[in-house]
Amino acid sequence: MHHHLPSSLLIALSLACGQASAAGPFTALHRDLSLDGASRLLDAAMAACHADGRLLAAAVVDRGGNLVALRRDDGVGPHNTAAAQRKAYTALSTRTATRLLAANARASAESANLNTVDNLLLLGGGVPLVVDGELAGAIGIAGAGGPAMDEACAMAAIDSVFPNTPQRR
After folding, report:
1. How many whole angstroms separate alpha carbon 12 and alpha carbon 4?
2. Can you list the domains of the chain with their CATH numbers?
3. In this structure, are residues 80 and 160 in contact, taking their beta carbons and an 8 Å threshold?
4. Exposed (0-12), middle (13-18) or buried (19+): which is 143, by Cβ within 10 Å?
5. CA 64 → CA 72, 109, 117, distances in Å?
6. Mind listing the pLDDT tens digit for each residue in 17-38?
7. Sheet containing 67-72: which strands, arranged edge to edge?
8. How far apart are CA 85 and CA 53, in angstroms?
9. In the chain, how long is the greatest CA-to-CA distance?
10. Distance between CA atoms of 22 and 27, rounded to whole angstroms?
């Protein structure tokens, strides 16, 4: 037995399919860091810093700058929690490791003005996460003993979780 669909339903379906495909040029698919990926980055960052006897606060943001995960060791100053998140946000927003950004700001008065932008923190320890050439998120570390150590823990985490993904340093 054959059932025939009414022609008005066929027309509506074909229009809907046409509209769905027409949206393609106006939308984009992007890589975004998942909660699992963020948790693994935090685990790796904590392990890297703890191996050097360091305590830390660590934050991971997604490609939109939204906080995905945050972890802080007991005994780490409360300001480090906010600093870690701001470092991650800054690295993502500028697509630049924050230690390099801080060095650029010291060398250029124009770059130093970035300090006036809300939520940016020009202090080493934030590193963007680039996966297959696309910005997927960022990690920020604070409280591990200075900008160089903070950045080293962030890079160790990225290298551990994303071993075949070269990052900007």
Report:
1. 15
2. 35-161 (3.30.450.150)
3. no
4. buried
5. 22, 28, 17
6. 555 445 567 887 888 899 999 9
7. 67-72, 57-62, 134-142, 126-131
8. 22
9. 80
10. 10
Is the confidence at residue 70, as pLDDT, over 60? yes
Strand-pair category, 134-142 with 57-62: antiparallel
What residue type is assigned to position 143 of the chain? G
Of the two residues 26 and 135, the one the predictor is more confident about is: 135
Please give the structure tokens belonging to residue 146: 């200075």
Where are any strands of DSSP class E within 79-146? 126-131, 134-142
Phi-psi region of 135 (alpha: psi -120 to 50; beta: other; left: phi over 0): beta
Instruction: Specify the amino acid at residue 31.
Output: R
Which pLDDT score, from 0 to 100, does residue 8 have? Answer: 56
DSSP state of 130: E
158 has a pLDDT exceeding 60? yes
DSSP state of 116: G
Residue whose entry in the numeric block shows the structure tokens 């998140």: 85
Which candidate, 150, 31, 34, 32, places its Cα nearest to that of 86?
150
Confidence of residue 151 (pLDDT cuts 50, 70, 90): very high
Q: Contact, 35 vs 1, CB < 8 A?
A: no
